[in-house]
Amino acid sequence: MSKSKFSFKYINSIAVPAIISGVIEPVLSLTDTAIVGNVSVNATEALAAVGIAGSFIATLGWIFTQSKVAIAALVAEYLGKKQLDKIIGLPAQMIGINILLGSLIYGITYFLTIHIFKLYNAEGLVLAYTASYYKIRALGFPLLLFIVSVFSVFRGLQNTFWPMIITAVGAVLNIGLDFVLVYGIKGLVPAMHVEGAAWASLIAQIVMFVLALILLLIKTPFRLKIIFKVHPELKRTIGISLNMLVRTVALNTCLILSNAYATKYGSNYIAAFTIAFQIWLFFAFFIDGYASVSAIISGKLKGENNYADLNVLVKTITKYALIVSVTLSLVFFMLYSCIGPVFTKNKEVIATFETFFWMVLIMQPLNAIAFVYDDVYKGMAEAITLRNTQLIATFLGFVPVLLILDYFNFKIYAIWVAFLVWMMLRAVLLRVKFVKLLRLNL
Fold first, then answer.
1. Where does the pLDDT of residue 4 fall: very low under 50, low under 70, confident under 90, or very high at 90 and above?
2. Which comes out higher in pLDDT, residue 88 or 325?
3. Are 426 and 390 spatial neighbours (Cβ–Cβ below 8 Å)?
4. Residue 177 and residue 58: Cα distance in Å, rounded?
5. Maximum alpha-carbon separation in the chain
6. Mean pLDDT, all residues of the chain
7. How far apart are CA 417 and CA 410, in angstroms?
């Protein structure tokens, strides 16, 4: 693969569908946030509830979808080796495990819902709304694990187009159903408030599940026939998944603590934090659309033992990711005073949001660098490196900074300074590790 192979056109052929596919999830969350935040009854409590439940669902998703890294990396590696026939039964075994896991997680959390969200400091009406939203929306968790697994197969095959199509269909359906089910249609559909947003997401996931199943069967060489003889690569796949699970537990420790502390500061703080964090996720998925090209291609380059091209790839992707992150930050700075009112009419929530949102914007270039190196190591299935980096960034960075600044009553600023330190450690540690890797292989 020559340097010219990583042209702007080539990278965008992978990145643009990945961006569209990636930003749809935060766009859906932003839509839920905006629609629920503008209901006529208990809007602040409803907004806080969707933020808390959505954060927990995202936490479960990030924790229990880590086989996606292993599936994509191994498919890409064997594609690079031109030996796909040797792993033809592996995805089916992992998908079967994921569906069973998703069903088990939903069953356990359903009965513990109230106890779980009390840990987020939710109480009263916020707790009631959060529990009702979660019990409906999380029904789709087993479907989510299936969909993510199928997307990983396509990514390993260097194909981001079909995941984009599936997620686009789900997004359009979800947004339309949000308006219909949350606000209702007079004489036809009753307004369902918070529960309407949950049903909209669940129905969209069911449709995405059906599309993912069909496209897996007709657009890939893989089938869902379960072979009970354990595949030789299954142990490695599970090992990668478990290391990524530990990494993600550390990552979600940050998210859980940030939500818990924002809730502790009051309803206005958690509502403002919910808006900012949904935008932060939107940025993350958008930037990661370019960064994910590193993951999609690096596994294949590893299979080819081509570290020279890997170095060129990372430099190129870093440049594009930085351009995107700076552009997004500048656009949102120009629209600064217009953003809060899109999500809520509560003036106190808007005022709180505007006091700290600038911090979200200034950290985006740093996020871009961290995401690129994250994805390089995901693509190469270097799960131990990712695990150790996340543990250091979380427990030697985020947690102590949050606790110290909270002690000195920095409130919402404590959370975002902790996020800034967290991302800085991730970026620096992975960059240092990558330089060492190149020295060993070039």
1. low
2. 325
3. yes
4. 21
5. 69
6. 88
7. 10
Amino acid at 384: I
Average pLDDT for 85-100: 87
The string of pLDDT tens digits covering residues 253-301 is: 998 899 889 989 998 999 999 899 989 988 887 788 778 788 888 888 8
41: left (phi over 0), alpha (psi -120 to 50) or beta: beta
User: For the chain, which residues make up each domain, given as ranges?
Assistant: 3-441
Give every CB contact of residue 263 below 8 A, 6+ residues apart in sequence.
48, 52, 120, 121, 122, 269, 270
Can you spell out the DSSP letters for 163-192?
A: HHHHHHHHHHHHHHHHIIIII-BTTTB---
Alpha-carbon dihedral of residues 130, 135, 136, 139, nearest 10 degrees? 140
Amino acid letter for position 196: G
CA 66-67-69 angle, to 5 degrees, is 75
Return the percent helix, strand and coil in the chain, to nearest 5. Answer: 85, 0, 15
Contact yes or no for 346/268 (Cβ under 8 A):
yes
CB burial readout 27-62, b (16+ within 10 A) else e: bbbbbbbbbbbbbeeebbbbbbbbbbbbbbbbbbbb
